[in-house]
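haha ok so turns out i had the wrong file open the whole time. this is the CORRECT one, sorry everyone. sequence first:
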Amino acid sequence: MRASGATLLADVGTGRPDDGLRTGELARAARLLAVRSRREAGGAFVGGYRSAFRGAGIEFEESRPYVPGDDVRFLDANVMARTGHPYVKRFREERDQTVHLVVDVSGSMAFGSSGHPSSTKGSVAARVAALVAVAALRAGDRVGLHTFDERVREELPPARGGAQLWQVLDRLLAAPGELGGPTGLAASFARVRASARRRSLVFVVSDFRDEGFFEAGDARGQRPGPSPRVDWVALARHHDLVAVLVHDPREDRLPRAGTLRLADPERPGRRFFLRTNRAVVRDRYRAASEVRRRAVIRRLRGDGASVLLLRTDRDPLQVLFRFFTARAGETSARRSPR
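then structure:
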């Protein structure tokens, strides 16, 4: 059995992230998301982001007298020889960094097993993007936004400042309530690649439910036929690419609830029935879902992207902070000044 993006209609609603929101409600939701994101993205979170993604480089700023506790790796031998006293080098980070947030607003992102709009994959994706936007803007980076389903729906050019945050939040909240088509990763990444002309940090937040994207010809030319992943691989090669794979644990499990009517949220009218009383059916569904997710993660990493698996029943703030901390350790080991 092949796991697909089908949504259970028997006991779980579609739960679109912003179903029925009017303009005034969107504005209020944007304010709430802004307040929450700013409160959560405090100094430690922003510091974790800055350490994980250091920007363009590091340049020497000055030498100052050594004090106990300074890193002895940064002792300035030339100044020490001239003065007879220990001095350490200080460096200044050159960020000049651009962040592209690429957020999936396709139909499958409307799934949420709790029945509450705030726990759908789309809502969790919006919160992740908002947290990254706040951290990046506070760090002085430029932030741009692309939302997509079968194609790029919204594009916000990168910019700095508080006004940009409001622009990002407005689009994150408005788009999922209005859209819901099939997922078109290839067309979306082609557009992002065209707009990201200088080396950037690219965060893609999606459930990556686009089977054709992974099953067609190989992006490295090892199999015949055109590949939809050419632009994705190019993004990984020329940019710092992070894939945030949003996952609802309920997608892996079928309840024992008799015959269920299921629908594909990205293909209206495509419905079918599944007898869930049989344990073998439930077990095969769970196994197929697990195999698919592992294959997607393996392929994304193989293409050169960093992958962060984010479950909808986990706190995005904590998951992102742990990811930043891990990345910071790797970055520090690679980029310590000599």
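The first strand starts at residue 7 and ends at 8.
again sry for the mixup
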